[in-house]
Amino acid sequence: MQYYKMNTKLNKPIIDFGYNLSIDHGVKMGRPLVLQFTDSYYCAISPMPRKSRIDAPGALHHIIVRGIDQSEIFNDNVDRNNFIDRLGRIIQETKTRCFAWSLIPNHFHLLLKTGQVPIATVMRRLLTGYAVSYNRRHHRHGHLFQNRYKSILCQEDAYLLELVRYIHLNPIRANIVKDITALDKYPYTGHTVIMGKVKNDWQDIEWVLKLYDDSLWVARRKYRAFIQKGVSQGRHTDLTGGGLIRSHGGWAAVKEQIEKKHGLLAKGYDLDKIALKVSAQMQLKPSEIWAQGKERKRVNARSLLCYWAVRDLGISMAELSRHLKLSLSGVSLSVKRGEKMAKDNGYKLVDL
After folding, report:
1. In the predicted model, what is the mean pLDDT of residues 102-119?
2. Residue 15: pLDDT above 80?
3. Structural domains of the chain, ranges and CATH numbers in brackets
4. CA 94, CA 122: separation in Å to the nearest integer?
5. CA distances (Å), origin 33, targets 49, 53, 87, 200, 297
């Protein structure tokens, strides 16, 4: 709280002056300020309280942290190794799961799943400790990171493969390495750990690779092919919106999704009832949906089933994998295909 003398006698209640308010004394903030007049000539200035992060045990977060004024936060390999050591130690101590990460000179990406400690606490420890160490080493003062870090709560399972690829391709997009062969050797991304070129004991590579195959060698080959395919695809807008729940939406978006799920459960919806809905929509017998085969109509029906099951009922892709006898990557692709089908054709599990 800071106090300032006013030039004019005022007698007003709390006023919200909005964003980026500047005052002669040097106060400038990127969020609303509240001015409360304590008497005729003085007012107390304080920032509006921030909205709390969306988080819960098991929540999947895509985190992006940038340097202030787009400045570098990693000057050399000493900085990068320092950051990785801190990240690994904190990940293990908090039992947070890390699926992907990538260091770029002026920013970094993390894909984390909340464990026993809130992500906000994990990030506070990581950013504060690294900033103090960086400033001391480079004889500088002041903030190192830009405002508040960006955290996007991601749809459980469904976008994991795409997010891992998106994050691990950042060094190519940033022109740090020129191609997939060079990326295989770049030590400052989780890609090299998944490929077995670099080892650490804190990145969860087993879960990622199992999405491709149970065989380690086959899984790595399929994973690399998936990464390579993404090089020519450019940026995906759906990885910063669409199927993801943005942090600035607050708990309202999450609350709506939870209420929808419990509403469907209360109406008796389960996997079998979804299958009946799909069979009616696609004019197939329910048994044909569960049967294996690559006929277009059957594939489309399974895709719609996967989409509604994952998005509306919150059924895990692992459970669908067992029921449909598909790989986890196959279920993931089915969810995306089903989403497009539902949007293009106006299919709805329940009419509103």
Report:
1. 94
2. no
3. 2-47 (no CATH), 60-239 (3.30.70.1290), 267-345 (1.10.1750.10)
4. 7
5. 9, 20, 34, 44, 57
Report how far residue 190's alpha carbon sits from residue 206's, in angstroms, rounded to the nearest whole number.
12
Predicted confidence at residue 247, as pLDDT, reads 41
pLDDT at position 324: 86
**Cβ neighbours of residue 169 closer than 8 Å, sequence gap 6 or more:** 183, 227, 230, 231
* Separation between Cα atoms, residue 192 and residue 6, nearest integer Å: 59
- By C-alpha distance, which of 256, 266, 351, 272 is closest to 311? 256
Dump pLDDT digits (tens) for 29-43.
Answer: 444 444 444 444 444
Q: Which residues pair with residue 101 across a beta bridge?
A: 110
Which strands, in side-by-side order, build the sheet including 97-104? 97-104, 107-113, 60-66, 150-154, 245-246
- The residue assigned the tokens 């995906």 is 236
Express each pLDDT in 231-268 by its tens digit: 877 665 555 443 444 444 444 555 566 667 777 888 88
Which candidate, 85, 92, 90, 94, places its Cα nearest to that of 114? 94
Segment 151-173, tens digit of pLDDT = 887 765 557 888 999 999 999 99
Q: What are phi and psi of 60, to 5 degrees?
A: -105, 125
Using DSSP bridges, classify how beta strands 33-37 and 2-5 pair: parallel, antiparallel or unpaired.
unpaired
Tell me the DSSP string of 37-89. E-SSSEEEEEEPPPPPPP--TT-EEEEEEEBGGG--S--SHHHHHHHHHHHHH
DSSP H helices in the chain:
77-94, 119-138, 160-168, 170-173, 180-183, 191-194, 205-210, 216-231, 250-266, 271-282, 286-290, 296-311, 317-324, 328-345
- Written as six digits, the tokens of 76 are 């050399």
Rounded distance, CA 147 to CA 30, Å? 8
